[in-house]
Amino acid sequence: MKEAVLTLKEIPQTGLEAEVISPNIFSGKSLDELRDLRIYAANKEVTLDTFFEVGGSTSKKPKDQRIIIKGDTSRVKRIGQEMSDGEILVKGDVGLHLGSRMKGGRIIVNGNAASWLGMEMSGGRIEVKGDAGNFVGSAYRGNWIGMEGGEIVIGGGAGSSVGACMAGGRITIKGDVGEFLGVRMRGGLIVVDGIIQPRIGAEMLAGSIIVNGEIRQMLPSFRKEETVEKINFPDLGFVIENKRFLEYIGDLAEDGKGKIYIKK
Amino acid sequence: MINKNLIIKNGTIYDPVNGICAEKKDIYISCGKIVEEPRKKRNAKIIDASGKIVMPSGMDIHSHFAGGKVNMGRLLRPEDSVRREVPVSGNLRSGTGFSVPSVFITGYLYAKMGYTFANEPAVPPLKARHTHEEFNDTPIIDKTSLLLLGNNHQLIEYIANGEKEKCSPWIAWMLSMTKTYGIKAVNPGGTFAWGWKENVHSIHDEIPQFQVTPAEIIETLVDVNKELNLPHPVHLHLTNLGIPGNYETALDTLKFGPLHITHLQFSSYGGETWRTFCSEADRIAKKINKSDDITVDLGQVVFGDTTTMTADGPFEYGLSTVNHLKWNNLDVEDEAGGGIVPYIYRKKSGVNAVQWAIGLETALLIKDPWKVFLSTDHPNAGVFTNYPKIIAWLMSKKYRKETMKECSRWASERTMIESLERELTLEEITIMTRAGPAKRLGLDASFSEGTSADIAIYDLNPQEKDGKRIEKAFSSAAYTIKEGEIIVKDGKIIKETIGKTYWVKPKIEKDLKSDIEKRFLYYSINPENYEVGLDYLPRGIKIDPT
């Protein structure tokens, strides 16, 4: 695997629209061509090397391309947008829309990620060691289909509206999450180990949420079912056994068939 | 610097108004107009159009591209906005939006296809100011707009009270106040009834509160149109639109001509339910072939994600209960209503596949191209940027067969599209997309001497039969010339201009001052603030119909 290394020269004053930082775009280009890639700093079009030192090497195919990003990139947006293969490693924090509409490949963030992480993604894997912001794996504003496939794993906590309109794939959060977890969810699975703020599963139509930690409040529009000891996810190819969960079905206000499992 | 003289050399010319079809001929332009021979040939700029086709620029007779409803669509659909993002480039403005593009890029997208005119067909009188404001920011193209009058409370009251003599002056006054171009009726009486949570289900149903039927409203509007001598006939969106079995309503309404029936595809449905849904385009086309005062536009379905929007409020509510997506309904005081629902036309959906076929059947079964014009009812059945694809479907049987193979079997089983051998010629396409709409709107799209030099040049071999190549050529004009200026070169906008806005000022025979004052007791604004001033029309062209 070839490694291209981007080092941020200075923290930009405004957000950078950097959807060109993707193995699909990097592969097959020379380093000089990478330096000449266009990004937007606010409404000004600038070259990539205005903000980044570009080093390392590039591969012929996206599959063999790894991009390592160094520095505080918390204002760099859209990294890995629509990528389908390869790998991105972000050493520090990262800005909005990381891996949005991602189709495949892998992104690892050692620091924290901002909001809209993995928005509408359909494949691949994103791992964040720190915390993530709001709208993880959700639909874009106004859209009704969010994340459809792939996997997001967050080592820390996340903000509100995580998995909004989610339709497939899996989100795992080790820490706490904010309000409206899985709002308008229609498929897929969310697993949370920490504390969940109110309104979990509001307007949920289908899909599952597993609560290994605790919830602050259950909506009255969910119906309590029986205690289950085995949960099967044939679509995602795994089974949870030897644990006891209390099953809820809802959101009945939307005639929904979503399931929330709370660990006993 | 503006080149006052322009010569288009060696092109293959299509000018149906003057009976010119595929002739090699030079075209001379002087001071923005077509001339027989320029006075000073020396200074002329020359465009070499050898190997290319030259025709008047495109005219869209029915496109919801500006105004309150369109803007509501933009607000309702931020997710549509990210599907097309156009950054600033040179002197050109930025914009976003796929099915409901923002104003500036709407002008650019039309010009890029070689279109320089669009008719906004549904303006609620109170939203006319907003429409003209958006017109001013929609560059390059010329515009007209039609006023929604089929559900006007005052008009319905006049009809109910037997005061028909007041209808003409009332409409003349409204047209003059709003600087619009003609009469539009959308589900006449139906949107009015929607105010009482009802609808009309035939043109002979009485609307609530008044003993008036849609048939009477249509008849009145047609009479008023004649009396005022308006350049465009009544532009009608039929009752029962978008419902299986509605072809009977369409046949029932066609006898009220002269009419322009818009997006006929949505009104050519057979069957009793969606399960038995089928095409009745054949029966309707036969009737239109026999009549001489009916024209139609297609409302051709193009597969993909779009935004439906119409002044037919009850229809949009019904649609939202079918697809369960977000929806919006609005009521414009005593005048009109409307609604917006996102919609995705899918090839694998039987109903959508039949709808797609009906549009093409309509275009192919109506023999006279002067009677049927190309439209997608933008953005209801598809986005206007898909016109080149529709042209290719109409010109190549092979191309439409390729699409049909990907569609649900319903397209071949429940329509006759598969058996239709007709392939439209370039001359017929020129009529359907340029000369025909212009004639029906009382405007001109020809190369006659003195006509405004609005010209499209496409890089297309006149004998071309390959659908993909036809689509590509019409998607990106080699040149678009507007009033003698080169606007587009090789599919790129090189100059931005301001288009004209045509409006009518019919003679008002009767003073309705006391009626207007009484009516405005129910309005949120005073009659003094109702008029859209001429300062809203920087290039307004007044048409005096008398």
Description:
The complex is a heterodimer of chains A (264) and B (546). Chain A has 264 residues and is mainly β. Chain A has two helices and 19 strands. Chain A has a domain at 115-263. In chain A, the strands form three sheets. A 13-stranded mixed β-sheet of chain A has the order 5-1-6-8-9-10-11-12-13-15-19-18-17. A four-stranded mixed β-sheet of chain A has the order 4-3-2-7, with no helix packed on it. A two-stranded parallel sheet of chain A has the order 14-16. In chain A, a hairpin with a 2-residue loop joins β3 and β4 (44-47). Chain A starts with a strand and ends with a strand. With 546 residues, chain B is of the alpha/beta class. Chain B has a single domain (56-493), classed as TIM Barrel, CATH 3.20.20. Chain B contains 18 helices and 26 strands. In chain B, strands 1, 2, 3, 4, 5, 21, 22, 23 and 24 form a nine-stranded mixed β-sheet that branches. In chain B, strands 6-9-10-11-12-13-16-20 form an eight-stranded parallel β-sheet, sandwiched between helices. A three-stranded antiparallel β-sheet of chain B has the order 17-19-18, sandwiched between helices. In chain B, α6 packs across α8, α10 packs parallel to α12 (350-365) and α13 packs across α14. The A-B interface holds A 40, 43, 45, 139-144 and B 76-80, 82, 87-88, 325-326.
